[in-house]
Amino acid sequence: MGKYLWPFLICLCACSSPPRTKWTDVSMRVFVDPDGIDPENYTRIVNALVSSERFSVVDRAEAFRAIKKEQERQHRHESGRFEDREKWAWWGKLLGARTIIVPHVSCRTDQTFWNRDRAERKCLQSLQGANANTGEIFVTVEGTNSAPVSHDMPFIVPDWDDTVANFVEKYPTEWEKHNYNENVRLYQDVSKERAIRETAEETPGSKVRGP
Predict the structure, then answer these.
(1) Listing from the earlier edge strand, what are the strands of the sheet with 118-131?
(2) What is the mean pLDDT of each run of 10 residues along the chain (211 residues)?
(3) Three-class SS of residue 121?
(4) The whole model's pTM is what?
(5) What is the rounded distance in angstroms from the CA atom of residue 189 to the CA atom of residue 185?
(6) What residues pair up with 108 in beta bridges, in sequence order?
């Protein structure tokens, strides 16, 4: 019985798709869009993503600008100050990302009538994962967190640990191909033909065929 079972197990292992990890799938390389959120929340989100150990997180904020400045310093503006063998920051070797994480946060302050000196700052947190090639949003999550605030104590931004954990849980485990039906494929072919025709009409000297 055993000799007949082994080929089945080998086939099962070979046919099953390997788990998606940051070491096997470029879609697990992400960056957090820093433009729509303040630096404090940005730092909290990046910290939670790195701590999850699920993603390769590349920076597009302060670290990105610092790295770019160092590369330009070593290879362009002050290249003569560095020996060639000591230029450890290679020119143009930064990593690209496949997934963009777009964060949003909105907060309000709750204060009780009996304790006006202290209040609670409640924040609604959301994360959207978008494909950097197509712009498609394929995962979105929301979470809430709060922190105390008062006139003698500055507001400390709440962590994003639970929201990021929810993001990790809902992140697709595998990508599915778009299998369109015949009507959609026909529509795509017509759209492609029209786009080619419009491009040709806008190009000086081009010859456009009639229908």
Answers:
(1) 56-57, 29-32, 99-110, 118-131, 137-150
(2) 50 54 78 92 96 92 85 80 78 86 92 67 94 91 90 82 95 74 78 83 62 48
(3) strand
(4) 0.72
(5) 6
(6) 122
